[in-house]
Each structure stands twice: as structure tokens, then as C-alpha cells.
Automatic annotation (TrEMBL):
Keyword list, A-Z: Signal, Sugar transport, Transport
Superkingdom of origin: Bacteria
Family: Belongs to the bacterial solute-binding protein 2 family.
Name of this protein: ABC-type sugar transport system substrate-binding protein
Domain annotation Periplasmic binding protein: ranges: 45-307
Subcellular location: Cell envelope
Primary residence: other
Length: 334
């Protein structure tokens, strides 16, 4: 996978404008206003789906930011299927949109369609998630988070949670992974393992790990199976809040107290996660900010104008524990 820390600064060219007939689940909402009499920028955006509260907030941010910027947005919901995204991107190419942006379902399998976009001279911007490519020039930039660092931060904040709870070794960890093959699932697991192997090789162990596909239903189902096979689990690391919330239901159904009998650390920072944390059911959350819309629209403008942009545009994030949850709740925008 391309290293997020080694992206270079690149310049991009201007692409032709046009309309779009999107694939998959379509939303033809658009903003037709433009400033200074110039031609309205048309952005084709393919979203992963609507699997979580984070994703819904991300979609709302993109739509509202496009409207505010006066861009014509052609939006496609891939329903968590790579083939739907590839079809949508090919439709954007056929209709000659100005810029294509998408949040890839998985990291691999994009070279062919990205080469088609490059041949059509339509710049591509990645949002939220990275891809593996044979040619770094197939996309312009990535607007998103450092998922590996989020995994590291989850491990470091778990140290504080364990110390505060007085939990003694051995620490038996269940891991709810995100969608198999997706960048956040791969990198969050990697970052967490880095810290665990370096600092807790003898006292921490991931005893069971399986994908919950970033959904509440998946988290609930997989956690129920975890508790059947490993009833002595005392820590849960969930790759997102929605899976953690689903897991809480199974923990309670098993007669255990989430946040006490099983300490829980998750990633995202959506409002429902903070509500669970304020109730003592989640111990800590590593934030992954979904409000990428304004940054994306700024990048689209620069790309359309042929300006130089950073190869990777990072979002601002924070870490939160239970005693901060109630104070943070009123200011949660997602």
C-alpha cells in the first residue's frame, strides 16, 4: 500500500466539464449556481455507502459543501460494492465531469478505471480512504485521516483506560475489524498491533478478531459469537463506533456490563458513540472526523484551476475518555 506519510506534492491539469448519469444508487441533487459568470464545476462523487453514522455525516458534509461552493454535484451511493463504484466512475468519465472524487470500498482493484480517467484527462481525488496503485499519478491527492495513527492512538488510550479501571494482566482483547480489504480496517489494525507488540507483548493478547463490516448489525452478531467462543474477553477494540454500539447489545444480552466487565475502545467519534460513552458503556473514543466536504471542495477548485495541491490533506482529530463525553456531546456535529 502507498505510504500516507510519503506522498509528494504534485500539479494537476484542467479537465473538461459535463453532466453525468450515475450508476448504482443515484442521487441527482446538484447545485447549479456559479460565481463571476464562470462555468459551474461539475463534481462526480462516488460514496462507499451508508453503513454507519460516520458515513452519513460524511455524505451530508460533501453535499452541503458542494452546494455552498456552487458546484454541480453528481452523487452515487455504491452500497458497499466495488463494482458499483467502478461503474459510477466510468459514467463520470463518459459524461466528462470536471473532477471525480470517491471514497474507495477497498484498497485494490482500481488501476484499470483510474487509467481510463487519466486517459480522459479527468483528475481524480480520493476522500477518506487510500488505494494501492501501480502508478502514483493515477490520482491527484487524498483528503482524509491517518488510519494507522488512529490504531496507535487507540492502543495508547487503552493503556489509560486499563490503568483507570485497575485491570490486571492478562488483557484479553477482542477486535471488531472493519470491512475486509478496506484501508481503515487494514491500517487501524496495523497501528494497534504496532503499539501492542512494542509495549505490551507479554500482557496484551488479541484472542479473537473478525470483521463486523463497520455496521451495528455486524458488531452485534460477531460480538455474540466472540462471547460464546471466548467468554473471558475483558477488552474490546472496535474499528468504529457503530460496531461498538452493536457489540454493547450482545454484551448486555450476555449479562455483562459494557465499559466495566468488558472495557471498550472504538474509533470515529459520532454522536451515538459519545452518548454510549457518557453512559459509561464505551470507555474511550479516537476521533476520525467525517466533515471532509469543505476541504474536498477547496481541493476540487484548485484541481480545476490547475493549482498545486498537497498529495495528502490530513484532517484534525482528537482522543476522548468517559469523563470528557458529556462535555463534548453538546458540540458534536455528527
Amino acid at each position: 500500500m502507498l505510504s500516507r506519510r510519503n506522498f509528494l506534492t504534485v500539479a494537476v491539469g484542467v479537465a473538461a466539464a459535463g453532466g453525468l448519469t450515475a450508476c448504482a444508487k443515484k442521487d441527482d441533487s446538484s447545485s447549479d449556481s456559479s460565481s463571476g459568470g464562470s462555468k459551474t464545476i461539475t463534481l462526480g462523487f462516488s460514496q462507499v455507502g451508508s453503513e454507519s453514522g460516520w458515513r452519513s455525516a460524511n455524505t451530508d458534509s460533501v453535499k452541503s459543501a458542494a452546494k455552498e461552493a456552487g458546484y454541480k454535484l453528481q452523487f452515487s451511493d455504491a452500497q458497499q460494492k466495488q463494482e458499483n463504484q467502478i461503474s459510477a466512475i466510468r459514467s463520470y468519465i463518459t459524461q466528462k465531469v470536471d473532477v471525480i472524487a470517491f471514497s474507495p470500498v477497498v484498497v485494490t482493484g482500481w488501476d484499470a478505471v483510474l487509467k481510463e480517467a487519466k486517459a480522459a484527462k479527468i483528475p481524480v481525488v480520493l476522500t477518506d480512504r487510500s488505494v494501492e496503485t501501480s502508478d502514483d499519478s493515477l490520482f491527484v491527492t487524498l483528503v482524509g485521516s491517518d488510519f494507522t495513527d488512529e490504531g496507535r492512538r487507540a492502543a495508547k488510550i487503552l493503556e489509560k483506560v486499563i490503568a483507570k479501571a485497575g485491570l490486571k494482566a492478562p488483557v484479553k482483547i477482542a477486535q471488531l475489524e472493519g470491512t475486509t480489504g478496506a484501508a481503515p480496517a487494514i491500517e487501524r489494525a496495523k497501528g494497534f498491533k504496532e503499539v501492542m507488540d512494542a509495549e505490551h507483548k507479554d500482557d496484551w493478547k488479541v484472542v479473537v478478531s473478525q470483521t463486523g463490516d463497520f455496521t451495528r448489525a455486524g458488531g452485534k452478531q460477531v460480538m455474540a459469537a466472540f462471547l460464546q467462543s471466548n467468554p473471558d474477553i475483558n477488552v474490546l477494540f472496535a474499528h468504529n463506533d457503530d460496531m461498538a454500539i452493536g457489540a454493547i447489545q450482545s454484551i448486555e444480552a450476555a449479562g455483562k456490563k459494557p465499559g466495566k466487565d468488558i472495557l471498550i475502545v472504538s474509533i470515529d467519534g459520532v454522536k451515538d458513540g459519545f452518548v454510549a460513552m457518557s453512559e459509561g458503556k464505551i470507555n474511550a473514543i479516537v476521533e476520525c472526523n467525517p466533515l471532509l466536504g469543505p476541504q474536498l471542495m477547496d481541493v476540487v477548485k484548485k484541481v480545476k484551476n490547475g493549482e498545486t495541491v498537497e498529495r495528502w490533506i490530513k484532517t484534525k482529530e482528537g482522543d476522548f475518555m468517559q469523563d470528557q463525553a458529556k462535555a463534548a456531546l453538546p458540540s458534536r456535529k455528527y
